[in-house]
Amino acid sequence: MKEFLGIGGYTREPEGYLSPQHLIFTIGLVLTTLVLAVLLGIRNKDRDDRVKNRTLIIAAILMDAVEIFKIVVMLYRSDDPSTSWHNLLPLFLCSIQLITIPLAAFAKGRLREAALDFVLILGLLGGVLGTVGAGQNYACYPVLSIDNVASAVTHCISAFSSLYIGLSGLANLKKRNVWITYLILGVFCVPAYLSNVLWDTNYMFLMQGDGTPYDILYNLLGGSPILYPIAVVSLFIVYITAFYGVVFLIRRNRSQKT
Length: 258
Description:
With 258 residues, the protein is an all-alpha fold. It has helices spanning 2-5, 20-44, 49-77, 81-84, 97-106, 109-129, 135-140, 146-168, 178-199, 214-220, 227-257. Helix 2 (20-44) runs parallel beside helix 8 (146-168).
């Protein structure tokens, strides 16, 4: 258990990104996520929102519990917890789901609607990037370690919630809530960038790609400290806009046919 938690440091060498161990673990976890999301989403599709929401409540509690446990372990094994806490803030794109999934499960009104939209739009993307695309984690830690297992589980819960919301019909994707979705993103982007500047962190990968697919964009822009973060945030905005745009276009075409 000490080895799994990394207490005293890992004695095992990291198997590495795209190693057989990494691929077997992440693909197995992703397939499990897909199966559960499809089965539960289809099962609850025609039930009322109160019943549909029970599954989302469980996902929200489980995701936050796993993340809190990981943070406690990391602070415990740190030589100086007072200097490591700023590396554990929920300011990654995927970390936003630690807050938006509970909002989607427990909030009311337009805030809940916007949170459901946000999880639906970005949850699956974050799930893929945080498992198959998390090159920086699997290059640093063994596959079966608290660092990678907890991260993979929370990212897969994010992906599960996204698929479940879409398949069960919980999200409405109303035009009036689009600005709130953008606002949620902005509320996290600003402190993420400020943290990166103040404490030399790399939240939302706004400073560099760090072994992730963002490296492609980072290299294309020559590592520009101005253009690169602007481009990353722009990609988030473009992705959200495109998602809403496709949904609204499909709805308009359907209404014209009927």
